[in-house]
Amino acid sequence: MENPLEDSPQRDARIKAKAREMWIADGKPTCGPEGYMEAATDLIGMEINPDAGEIPVESPVPLAPNGEPIEDAKIQENLGNLGGSMDEQDDRQEVPFGTREEEEKALKDS
To answer: Residue by residue, what is the 3-state secondary structure of 11-34?
Structure first.
């Protein structure tokens, strides 16, 4: 497999030929074939390495079957006081608990 980003005389010739082909297909506008060099470079790069966009990328977070990210409920602790009393010094935990035992204990104590 050839590197699509590496300059070579053959690659440059293919790009110039593609730019000229695109220029002629568009009716020879005044910009000349040079105006098509960037698009031609992209197309030739895709022809040289057609599988480049098919490399799978692993998600940094687990995904649900529908594709939505699954985030840990504990992340909510970093968001501060989300409601309840208007006191920012609120000592009550208003986010999900780590375990059912912690939740039961907190509900009994309140």
So the answer is: HHHHHHHHHHHHHHHCCCCCCCHH
